[in-house]
Design goal:
- The longest helix is centred in the first third of the chain and has 22 residues, at 76-97.
- The chain is globular.
- It has 8 helices and 12 strands.
- The strands form 4 sheets. The chain has a 4-stranded mixed beta sheet, with no helix packed on it. Strands 5-6-2-7 form a 4-stranded antiparallel beta sheet, sandwiched between helices.
- It has 3 domains: 4-39 and 74-165, Reverse transcriptase/Diguanylate cyclase domain (Alpha-Beta Plaits, 2-Layer Sandwich); 174-268, no CATH class; 272-315, no CATH class.
- Mean pLDDT is 78; it is low at 1-12, 267-275 and 310-324.
- It is of the alpha+beta class.
- Helix 3 (76-97) packs across helix 4 (118-134).
- InterPro entries: DNA/RNA_pol_sf, RT_dom.
- This is Reverse transcriptase domain-containing protein.
- It comes from Perkinsus olseni.
- Residues 1-158 form the Reverse transcriptase domain.
Length: 324
């Protein structure tokens, strides 16, 4: 599959999707879906979870149910990803049957087409559009990306068979964090906000939850707990009629800076935290020139299985060379 170039953490699901794309698939396109979650029909038992009762003008009770998958529910992304396998599998089956040298991959509602050349990519996009429309998905032509040798996909950049971090990601520093928190406490309001900072703060929470959620595969227990605080706060701020607990701002600030500290701590954020005491260290191999850079992160761990074909823990080095 596509090699990853870069030392920053990359979501496991996205990397797995790209690793099964062949090296010779060097032309890419994206198909954007309009309000994709609302295209997933809920089964009756789940639909009953999202209901309310009103009274009509005649006094009769009316029961309302949400029939499609809502965004923001804790299990929505799981159900959506499972549902997206259906159109993606149908697309790939047709590509194989029609001899189109391309594959379709997705991360949630982001759909990627990778092909060996422009003609195959255009043919694959046509197939994808037909299959999505057959299942009543709506295509957003304005946001879809035509065939190209380079494309950004979920924070990654695919170029000529290689995968790197998207270069538009901003540098994160202590100053960034302080400025960001100040923006939360004293947001710039739009005329439509009518002097109420709640909408601006909700937008802030969505943004920073997305930033830290990007690294969730590398977060330790304390950082994960902090991430959940931001997620729950986002839910509170979204409900315009719900009062905000007095201690929420203090908990939010503590959680935000916990996540900032975890990220700014450097390489520990790249370790597989579930390894615990088995972790010996991290080795970072880098190379760069004036035009580009690359890095490979290696993790050294102990092995408790004496029958393993790999070297046993006793033969692994404990001290690693440094550049000091």
């Amino acid at each position: 599959g596509l090699p990853s170039v870069g030392a920053q953490p990359i979501g496991k699901a996205r990397v797995h999707s790209l690793r099964v794309v062949g090296y010779d698939y060097v032309v890419y396109a994206k198909v954007d879906l309009v309000d994709a979650y609302s295209c997933i029909l809920l089964p009756p038992r789940l639909s009953a979870l999202f209901g309310l009762v009103t009274r009509d003008p005649s006094g009769e009770l009316v029961w309302w149910q949400l029939r499609v998958l809502p965004q923001g529910w804790v299990w929505s992304s799981v159900l959506f990803n499972s549902s997206m396998h259906i159109p993606i599998d149908r697309i790939n089956a047709r590509l194989d049957k029609e001899g189109i040298r391309a594959v379709a991959r997705h991360n949630k509602d982001d759909v990627l087409i990778a092909a060996v050349d422009t003609n195959n990519c255009e043919g694959a996009v046509s197939v994808a559009r037909e299959e999505f429309q057959a299942l009543h998905f709506l295509i957003n032509d304005a946001k879809s990306t035509p065939p190209s040798s380079s494309v950004n996909f979920c924070g990654l950049r695919l170029t000529n068979g290689c995968c790197t971090m998207e270069p538009t990601r901003f540098e994160f520093t202590d100053t960034t964090a302080s400025t960001a928190w100040s923006e939360f406490m004293n947001p710039t309001l739009k005329p439509s906000d009518r002097g109420n900072p709640r909408v601006a703060r909700t937008t802030w929470l969505r943004k920073w939850f997305g930033v830290f959620n990007y690294f969730r595969g590398f977060l330790g227990p304390d950082a994960m707990s902090a991430l959940f605080v931001i997620q729950k706060a986002q839910s509170v701020f979204q409900k315009v009629d719900e009062d905000i607990p007095e201690d929420l701002y203090d908990r939010l600030k503590k959680s935000f800076y916990t996540l900032v500290a975890f990220y700014l701590s450097g390489l520990p954020g790249l370790l597989a935290t579930s390894l615990g005491d088995r972790l010996l260290g991290t080795v970072l191999l880098t190379d760069s020139n004036t035009a580009s850079w690359s890095a490979v992160v290696l993790i050294a761990v102990t092995l408790d299985d004496p029958n393993s074909e790999l070297a046993h823990s006793a033969s692994l080095p404990v001290d690693f060379p440094t550049t000091d």
